[in-house]
Specification:
By secondary structure, the chain is an all-alpha fold. It has a single domain, classed as Orthogonal Bundle (Cytochrome Bc1 Complex, Chain D, domain 2), CATH 1.10.760. About 55% of the residues lie in helices and about 5% in strands. The chain contains eight helices and two strands; from the N terminus they run ααααααααββ. Strands 1-2 form a two-stranded antiparallel ribbon. Helix 2 crosses helix 6.
Length: about 160
């Protein structure tokens, strides 16, 4: 019969315990609303109203999805890109933010994926205010298009 080394057995048990803890933690990912409370609400507030002149409101955040670069912007702003969440949790949180604080409820909206978040958050915005202003200008131009497809009196052609 061979004798087991008690140190080796203890190390195996500790490793197994750590692995089981990791699996149990991963299996019960927090709901996105809870991640909002823990990672966003301190600045944006419970209702997502932000702080005038400092923290932008999340109300109507879905409007950024209407313009090129808007979807990426939402994942690349520093508070999002640097959030202490894994890519999958951050994707769920962004989907929740858009659905919860958005003004429109389209039947189908592309969901963020963990791989998309990984790619986008690796490129945080150096000047998020400049990018935001540019996106808002594009949105203003889109909003200037009336229901007949005219911009400032000129017809729009596809």
């Amino acid at each position: 019969m061979s004798r087991r080394n008690p140190t080796t057995s203890a190390a195996h048990i500790a490793l197994l315990g750590a692995l089981l803890t990791f699996v149990a933690t991963a299996a019960r990912a927090r709901p996105p609303a809870e991640d909002y409370v823990l990672h966003c609400m301190g600045c944006h507030g419970a209702a997502g109203d932000g702080e005038r002149g400092g923290v932008p409101s999340l109300r109507g955040v879905d409007r950024f999805l209407r313009v090129e670069g808007g979807r990426a912007y939402l994942a690349r702003v520093p508070g999002v890109a640097q959030a202490a969440l894994d890519d999958a949790a951050l994707a769920r949180l962004l989907d929740w933010l858009v659905a919860h604080f958005g003004e429109t409820k389209p039947a189908r909206r592309p969901r963020y994926s963990a791989s998309e978040i990984q790619r986008l958050r690796a490129l945080p915005l150096a000047d998020p205010l400049r990018v935001r202003r540019a996106l808002l200008q594009r949105l203003d131009r889109l909003d200037a298009v009336d229901s007949k497809g005219h911009v400032d009196g000129a017809a729009c052609h596809d």
